[in-house]
Amino acid sequence: MVAVEVRPSRLKAPSELGDLFTDDRYERVSRALGKAYRDVVRGFRGEFENPPDLVATPGDESEVEAVLSWCEAEGAAVIPFGGGTSVVGGVEGRLGERPFVSLDLRRLDRVLEVDGGSLAARIQAGATGPVLEEQLRGHGLTLRHFPQSFEFSTLGGWIATRAGGHFATLHTHVDDLVESVRAITPRGTWESRRLPGSGAGPSPDRALIGSEGILGVVTEAWMRVRPRPEFKASCGVEFGDFLAGARAVREIAQSGLYPANCRLLDALEAETTGAGDGERSLLVLGFESAHGPVGAAMSQAVAIAREHGGEPGEIRESAPGAATPPMGRKPRHISGNRPVDGEGTGGAVETWRNAFLFAPYLRDTFVACGVLSETFETAITWDRFEALHATAIEAARRKVAEVSGASADGPGSPRVSCRFTHVYPDGPAPYFTVMAPAVRGGEVEQWDEVKAAVSEALLEAGGTITHHHAVGRDHRPWYDRQRPDPFAAALRAAKAELDPSGILNPGVLIDP
Amino acid sequence: MVAVEVRPSRLKAPSELGDLFTDDRYERVSRALGKAYRDVVRGFRGEFENPPDLVATPGDESEVEAVLSWCEAEGAAVIPFGGGTSVVGGVEGRLGERPFVSLDLRRLDRVLEVDGGSLAARIQAGATGPVLEEQLRGHGLTLRHFPQSFEFSTLGGWIATRAGGHFATLHTHVDDLVESVRAITPRGTWESRRLPGSGAGPSPDRALIGSEGILGVVTEAWMRVRPRPEFKASCGVEFGDFLAGARAVREIAQSGLYPANCRLLDALEAETTGAGDGERSLLVLGFESAHGPVGAAMSQAVAIAREHGGEPGEIRESAPGAATPPMGRKPRHISGNRPVDGEGTGGAVETWRNAFLFAPYLRDTFVACGVLSETFETAITWDRFEALHATAIEAARRKVAEVSGASADGPGSPRVSCRFTHVYPDGPAPYFTVMAPAVRGGEVEQWDEVKAAVSEALLEAGGTITHHHAVGRDHRPWYDRQRPDPFAAALRAAKAELDPSGILNPGVLIDP
Question: Which residue(s) pair with A124 in the sheet?
Fold first, then answer.
């Protein structure tokens, strides 16, 4: 049993605001960390260095405004918590002496309006994936945005961090699903019109999407939803050579076919997730539609894969009224409403899918077992992909070996695998998973060194420091080099205008 | 013959900068106006109230920087000219006593690099449509961005104004085609990384796209290009009822089929363009692909149209190697490189297409003939479309009748027609064309009143003041009400930071 010492709250909850704030120890501690490996390690150790001084759980927008006003008056910072699943230090207030409040919108979790004709729904920002899907289900609709954190993360968090979702092609980020956004800033309400498209100045929505809480607190959004897909097809395609698989994916991504699933796992990743034999890469292909059969599109994609040496397994199709094929086992402790029904089409595809859902839970076990595990994700144009892939893997292996004292190649050597989470006509979003023996007691430092080495490699090779995990605090050194300087200056000026006291999530994205 | 009096230049071209600047009368006058109806009228009259004092034609980025530095030192403003096709007062310096320079990047018109594997090309901002397509053609590639202004407008202008293009669905605006942008600001170079996707903070590209020259001068961009389409299908579908056609379009837009062409013309619009009998609406459907046959997708779309009462004409298909079907006549004086080959598939579709290409030329003739003609375009979600459609048409008819003294319904009454230029799952982008007898000598005032009345109606009904014509100066009163106030404050702060002397296109989008 680890004794948890928690810094006393440096703020006194204002009695005139009722139970809007709490300094309850559990509430504070449970919002002190995100879900990065370094967070989980510290949590296991009972190290909560930066607990919020208060937690605020507003029940409406006027209470959000009250929180901002009170904090501004007190000189306290406000960190929107979302679902607390940040893996980049986005919810941890590393603010030194400055007190701060963790803002949790979990009480704002309703689907307020549904416009079935326009396929749009007005949803409060505190709704988690399962909660909003459950409400949409009654209308026969779905947002179909399933990040790995789906069970816990919230709509507001997705918008604030440009979360990546279910669709491997086309509508990859939540960005494309946003019809309009409403946010509370210290200088008033920011609400855009509901518009299917516009050319009136730079998009106000795109300025908020990805702002990680530094400009305002997203309270609700009109989101583009869709009927639940009834026609589906899936297929696993094996490749002897990962780079041949990558070439097949490139051609599929450029074909205009837009598969919903198009994830290429290298041999190691396929093996780790139980979907492969460790010798062959696996391409997981899926198509879906609410409107009509997708078998023809799947056949075209499979034909492309075959031209690049791929060996396809059986194509599994489902359609309305057809018997649902036997499903793979659903991870039992994942509750919520992720619509696995009809999704499971068996075989390697299903095996990988279950491993994907399990992974965040496994990580906690890895920490307990002394396994360092971390992921790095980026995006890069095709012309530079192979070089990035080689240098990122090499950087990870070398650094892990160096800090763990193990050989880079021998027994106990690090496992570095790669998959594509999303793909575009102009390039893939590669996702690297590193597993290695942890240095007991030095896990955080080990992680920091590996993180820095791989991040450096990704940036040097021309990639983005993050395709969908956000910047937060952990990615800052590389983000600062990646973004255009005048854009940083513009963002800083915009923040100073809307948040002159600098209360909103200080330290993510920019410094004052 | 109209005598043209031009205000003498208030700036003296700096001799140390060679021929970077000119005060040549023709060069100045030809950049004094855009291409709105009110511009054409004033041009016919020889009224050039706001000619630039100098015209600058830099040959490289260092010369762009020199122009900005010199103007900042002189207290002069800089208005990027693009191709001069603004219909919203975007290139006209209504700056009172403040002198200004028109910045024309026409010398920067090269495709600098092509990355065929990633389907991307680095293109200079001054390249017009035909000039960049001609260069891409050598690589078997195309940008396939064809705004009506294609022949004259430039890549930089498209990016600065969020131009709408060829594709009626999916990639409707140039926004989606931008992989990275490079711009010169008074405080340094703004260049984003080439990335197929990213989640690193708010998109820096989206902040520049639509900024209408107030933050910086776009000098080049990596653009997503594609192979030239070889498989095509087109079909015209007639509807007795425009609103039934709209419902068919809605379902097609929500089907995931993504037709390249999906333009619904009401009966009047179809008649005006010679594509219809004046009784029936026409839906112009088209699919295209560089990769495979599109007949099946067309059949599905046509089946949807049929369910809504549409009567399809013949489906015309073309494929590689097949004989090209007889083409409609290409408007002879439209030179350039708009790829009509293989595009023409005859019939009503082709007739409408030619009318579309001709329209900007016809407008000049209309002015000479005393016909007021103007267009209004917006976007709106489906739930509010019918109401917007009714009120916009009513507002146009009433106001035209009022200012022209004609009856709203009798002979010589205004013709107000509607078509959809682009459609989305959540709503259409309706485009209204107004034609009426002009009030000789009072055309500008007449236009201003009609513009105001219809703009008011569009805004009141929930639409955007512009879907793809930009804001410029003419749309400002409505844009100011449409955009979120905190966003305007943020934009103003960003501009003040990057352009502290306020030299860049003052008066569009925001006031200092």
Answer: A220
- Residue B327 pLDDT level (bands cut at 50, 70, 90): very low
The 3-class secondary structure across B122-183, one letter per residue, is EEECCCEHHHHHHHHHCCCEECCCCCCCCCCCEHHHHHHHCCECCCCCCCCEHHHHEEEEEE
Name every chain A residue with its beta carbon within 8 A of the beta carbon of B484: 189-192, 204
Q: Do B483 and A201 touch (CB under 8 A)?
A: yes
Contact yes or no for A367/A41 (Cβ under 8 A)? yes
Residue showing tokens 């190691």 = A268
**Are A449 and A440 spatial neighbours (Cβ–Cβ below 8 Å)?**
no
Contact residues, chain A, for B429 at CB < 8 Å: 196-197
**Per-residue confidence (pLDDT) for residue A188, from 0 to 100:** 97
- CB-CB under 8 Å, B489 with A187: yes
Task: State whether residue A112 is helix, strand or coil.
Answer: strand
User: Cα dist. A284→A148, A278, A348, A421 in Å?
Assistant: 17, 16, 8, 11
Of the given ranges (A399-403, B215-219, B247-251, B262-266), which has the lowest mean pLDDT?
Answer: A399-403
Cα–Cα distance measured from residue B228 to residue B341, given in angstroms and rounded to the nearest whole number: 11
Query: Cβ contact (<8 Å) for B193 and A468?
Result: no
Among the partner-chain residues A115, A175, A201, the one whose CB lies closest to the CB of B383 is A115
pLDDT at A408: 67
Whether A479 sits inside 8 A of B216 (CB atoms) is: no
For residue A363, give the H/E element and its range.
helix A347-369
CA–CA distance, B338 with B333 (Å, rounded to integer): 12
For residue A463, the chain B residues in CB contact (below 8 A) are: 195
**Chain-chain contact of B119 with A226 (C-beta, under 8 angstroms):** no
Which 3 state secondary structure label does DSSP give A322? coil
Predicted confidence (pLDDT) at residue B9 exceeds the cutoff of 50:
yes
Of A120, A192, A468, the CB nearest to B381: A120
How many residues does the structure list for chain B? 512
Q: How far is A251 from chain B (nearest CA, A)?
A: 9
Residue type, A119: L
Task: Residue B162: list chain A partners with CB under 8 A.
Answer: 198-199
Question: B253-256: long-range contacts at Cβ-Cβ below 8 A with a sequence spacing of 24 or more?
Answer: B253/B169, B253/B423, B253/B424, B253/B425, B253/B428, B254/A119, B254/A226, B254/A291, B254/B425, B255/A291, B255/A292, B255/B300, B255/B301, B255/B304, B256/A289, B256/A290, B256/A291
State the burial class of residue B448 (Cβ atoms within 10 Å of its Cβ: 0-12, 13-18, 19+): middle
User: What residue type is A191 in one-letter code?
Assistant: E
Say whether residue B117 is in contact with chain A using an 8 A CB cutoff. yes
Question: With an 8 Å Cβ cutoff, are B192 and A487 in contact?
Answer: yes
Burial of residue B29, with CB atoms counted within 10 A of its CB: 0-12 exposed, 13-18 middle, 19 or more buried: middle
Closest-CA distance, A104 to chain B, in angstroms, reads 21
Q: How many CB atoms lie within 10 A of CB B97?
A: 5
| CB neighbour list of residue B415: distance below 8 Å, 6 or more residues apart | B268, B272, B433, B434, B435, B436
Q: Which of residues 365-394 of A touch B (CB under 8 A)?
A: 379-383
Nearest-Cα residue of chain B relative to residue A510: B201
Q: Give per-residue pLDDT as tens, B140-189.
A: 999 999 999 999 999 999 999 999 988 999 999 999 999 999 999 999 99
The ipTM is 0.94
Start-to-end CA distance of chain A, whole Å, equals 41
pLDDT band at B342 (very low <50, low <70, confident <90, very high): very low
Q: What is the 3-state secondary structure (H, E, C) of A247-273?
A: HHHHHHHCCCCCCCEEEEECHHHHHHC
Q: A479–B200: do the CB atoms touch at under 8 Å?
A: yes
Half-sphere exposure of A461 (CA within 13 A, CB side): 28
Its pTM surpasses 0.80: yes
